[in-house]
């Protein structure tokens, strides 16, 4: 399943790449012959925009197909290839705090007792009694263990979620439990079956779940080689219209107490029309792609290879048996990986940096490398996220994230710097010296913490306390608490 999706995506990406090259050539031609070029052309083109589509999975505007210029990247402002500015993880920390104190969702149109409960919960979390040792939790992994503990307790005690029954299969209500997008499927399956949080009475609900699958949306409605997926967005817009017409709840808050959980690359853009006010739990958690820190949450991308035993193969070699300093293998998606390979592919015996590994059953070679390396490199692909982050955690390898604007999962509560390394894209040439500069003691500490954080990234067929299902729900709850208002 995962493989098929990949090859379909690959073809689409190739098509997009060809189109952008065409546009670049036309633009260069214009500039060379002193025809209107650069921002003039872009300005002109913007006026005739009528559609949107993806290039390298970022949104671009498509001009009507009679025109000689067929598409253009967005956010161009003079330069054709968007070079993303970097938001460091420390800056994200600040933005999160800032947004949690300043972001406010729409004022509800009428009173509901749940709004008071959320405000009360916020106050209790902000004034949480200070704790240092919490049974099953490892304190250094958290930004603030006292606040997390209180918030989690309150979630267990009061949170009620209403799950909409509207919507036809397979896009709605049909969870897919395998492959690289499996997180959205597992969450859907476990949420729809849940007895603790789900309420049948929407008046008691603090949150409303829109149970669609961004993967099924693509597989069902995307017309192969089509330059546009506006029909996918239309489908979601219609869904929202149905919900808003039939029930009073959407209009009460403009969707601010509604949430979705979506792992496909396109999900941020697909949900950026009618669903912008919702809390969006997204694998593609890209600060440059409409992700709002403090409202949206980063969904871990988990590559599930066995739906019966999603945790199969967990664990890795002891520290002394991890002979490889750093490992990466994968396709040359996006602009970062070719740079990584150019600097480190086949250059240094400590740095096992490869393109795609030869196929092996259950991806055995790849997993063995992860289990036997000190650091696992997680560079962005077409998008900021990668299943490698959770794989590294599963196989007890310290993740090294090279993806400048990626908001890591459960960012609201986890202190990522305590168990992962962040290297900025421009520092790829210094990768080895950066890793070697980490003292052994610090490495051992991070590795131990990777093992401790594992429990928060594992799917179970029957959810257990603090597992990934509860952590996904908790981040949504936490952001709802910090953005709620009263009428
Ligand atoms: C323009 O593109 C759309 C699909 O995006 C297609 O249906 C339509 O036939 C095209 N029109 C022309 C004139 O090529
Ligand atoms: C954690 O949050 C609580 C409640 O706001 C606060 O009293 C405490 O000082 C915080 N602890 C740390 C380490 O920041
Ligand atoms: C919610 O608002 C929309 C747009 O204003 C309206 O069409 C719809 O009927 C409203 N829903 C309800 C249940 O009143
Ligand atoms: C913070 O919230 C505001 C909305 O109040 C949003 O526009 C902004 O993008 C958010 N910042 C980040 C970094 O997400
Ligand atoms: C798209 O990706 C290709 C290779 O993956 C890269 O060469 C190109 O610069 C990218 N284009 C944009 C607009 O990011």
TrEMBL record:
The chain crosses the membrane at residues 14-35. Its main location: Golgi. Residues 156-436 form the Exostosin GT47 domain. GO terms for cellular component: Golgi membrane. It is a single-pass type II membrane protein. It is found in: Golgi apparatus membrane. One of its GO terms (molecular function) is glycosyltransferase activity. Keywords: Glycosyltransferase, Golgi apparatus, Membrane, Signal-anchor, Transferase, Transmembrane, Transmembrane helix. Belongs to the glycosyltransferase 47 family. This is Exostosin family protein. The gene is 25499352.
């Amino acid at each position: 399943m995962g493989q098929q999706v990949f090859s379909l995506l690959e073809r689409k990406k190739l098509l997009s790449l060809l189109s952008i090259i065409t546009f670049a050539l036309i633009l260069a031609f214009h500039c060379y012959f002193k025809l209107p070029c650069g921002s003039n052309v872009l300005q002109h083109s913007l006026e005739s925009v009528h559609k949107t589509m993806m290039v390298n999975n970022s949104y671009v505007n498509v001009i009507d197909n009679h025109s000689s210029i067929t598409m253009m990247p967005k956010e161009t402002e003079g330069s054709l290839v968007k070079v993303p500015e970097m938001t460091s993880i420390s800056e994200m920390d600040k933005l999160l705090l800032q947004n949690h104190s300043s972001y406010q969702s729409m004022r509800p149109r009428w009173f509901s007792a749940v709004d008071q409960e959320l405000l009360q919960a916020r106050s209790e979390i902000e004034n949480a009694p200070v704790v240092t040792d919490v049974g099953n939790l490892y304190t250094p992994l958290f930004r603030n263990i006292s606040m997390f503990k209180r918030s989690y307790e309150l979630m267990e005690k009061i949170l009620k979620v209403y799950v909409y029954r509207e919507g036809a299969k397979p896009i709605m209500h049909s969870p897919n439990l395998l492959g690289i997008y499996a997180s959205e499927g597992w969450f859907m399956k476990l949420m729809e079956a849940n007895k603790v949080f789900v309420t049948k009475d929407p008046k008691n609900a603090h949150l409303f779940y829109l149970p669609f699958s961004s993967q099924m949306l693509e597989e069902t409605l995307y017309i192969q080689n089509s330059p546009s997926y506006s029909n996918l967005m239309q489908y979601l817009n219609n869904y929202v219209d149905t919900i808003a017409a039939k029930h009073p709840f959407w209009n009460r808050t403009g969707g601010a107490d509604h949430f979705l959980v979506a792992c496909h690359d396109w999900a941020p853009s697909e949900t950026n029309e009618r669903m912008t006010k919702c809390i969006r739990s997204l694998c593609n958690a890209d600060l440059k792609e409409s992700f709002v820190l403090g409202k949206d949450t980063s969904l871990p991308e988990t590559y599930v290879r066995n739906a019966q035993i999603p945790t199969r193969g967990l664990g890795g070699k002891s520290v002394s048996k991890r002979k490889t300093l750093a490992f990466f293998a994968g396709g040359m998606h996006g602009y970062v990986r070719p740079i990584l390979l150019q600097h480190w592919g086949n250059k240094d015996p400590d740095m096992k940096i490869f393109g795609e590994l030869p196929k092996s059953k259950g991806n055995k070679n790849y997993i063995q490398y992860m289990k036997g390396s000190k650091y696992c490199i997680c560079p962005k692909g077409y998008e900021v996220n990668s299943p490698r982050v959770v794989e590294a955690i599963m196989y007890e390898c310290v993740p090294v994230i090279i993806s400048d604007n990626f908001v890591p999962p459960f960012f609201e509560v986890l202190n990522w710097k305590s168990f992962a390394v962040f290297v900025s894209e421009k520092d790829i040439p210094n990768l080895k010296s950066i890793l070697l500069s980490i003292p052994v003691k610090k490495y051992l500490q991070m590795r131990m913490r990777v093992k401790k954080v594992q429990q928060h990234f594992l799917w179970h067929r029957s959810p257990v306390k603090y597992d990934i299902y509860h952590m996904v729900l908790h981040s949504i709850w936490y952001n709802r608490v910090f953005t709620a208002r009263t009428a």
